[in-house]
Design goal:
Two copies of one chain form a homodimer. Chain A has 181 residues and is mainly beta. In chain A, 14% of the residues lie in helices and 40% in strands. Chain A is globular and about 60 Å long.
Chain lengths: 181, 181
């Protein structure tokens, strides 16, 4: 049974204070970039404005019923709009879409012209945009929102989905703060 | 503005019923495998028993305070033990750890000898095991549990962390139901 007397401590051990210091937070930021993640774009629409931001913090929660989760920064405009409209879409990016991930990687980007250079589809006039060329896309209705620390966990039921992947397309992956193929 | 008259519908469109059919669920299962995901092992300890299972559904929620989330099948034994003990660890696997991902990939694996072939560390006698050679590992205290559909979203505060990655180690990634490097 570990640890036995004389056994080494866990490697690189850092114990966090109950009220973590700025140094604890910085160390966590670096460590958390070791998680490889697929890259997606969250989209939502309010009135005539499309909002879109690149994210990596999403997951599939359940098949029954089809349910997904995305974690959005609580103070971001897109989090407000997703909650207000109750609708959003997730487009899973291929490695060919790395320029789109860069373009939409900043949640404060101006709305005017946001999707001008980004090919997209829309299922109906008020529906969120889904990005052309995505490995898969999902349109969702907000089912639950759980505020946790600095973020909101937005749980959505899948109402429509599809795929526009080219043959041989592979996922865009983010690891150690860089996009990878 | 899309859709314009005569524009194509979103590619591969499937609209799900309010009460999704088995075919809807199967289509979602396939589509959701298009999300590339890093691979981790969740561990927890109760009495003298170590529980461990390979997961891909985890994310970093916040730096302030350091907070992570893992989605566990509601009927799994490990979900019960994580909630009962309030403690768990996440070890982010490198591509060299693919055999461990396979070995621990089944939540019903027998507990006796579960970690016999898996090198690990433990911070203190009751702490969850952390896997040697992981890109990064995090020990957490359960902060919140949200049941959603067939799963429980377990939110944890990071209490300790570390890294045991070899130089040049790269993440193990799962995509389209297969492990990739």
């Amino acid at each position: 049974m570990h640890p036995r007397p004389g056994e080494p401590a866990p490697p690189g051990l850092r114990v966090l204070a109950d009220d973590p210091s700025a140094a604890d937070q910085d160390a966590y930021k670096v460590a958390s970039t070791q998680a490889a993640k697929g890259v997606a774009v969250v989209t939502t629409r309010q009135g005539r404005w499309d909002h879109a931001v690149t994210v990596t913090d999403l997951l599939s929660v359940s098949y029954d019923p089809p349910t997904m989760l995305v974690s959005l920064y609580e103070l971001s405009r897109i989090a407000d709009v997703v909650v207000e409209t109750g609708r959003f879409a997730l487009s899973l990016l291929s490695d060919a879409q790395a320029p789109i991930a860069d373009r939409l990687g900043w949640s404060g980007a101006p709305l005017v012209g946001l999707l001008d250079q980004v090919p997209f589809f829309r299922r109906e006039p008020d529906a969120p945009a889904v990005l052309a060329g995505s490995l898969a896309w999902f349109e969702l209705r907000v089912a639950e929102v759980h505020p946790v620390a600095t973020h909101r966990l937005v749980v959505g039921r899948v109402v429509a989905m599809g795929s526009d992947a080219s043959p041989g397309a592979r996922p865009l992956v983010r690891w150690r703060s860089e996009y990878r193929r």
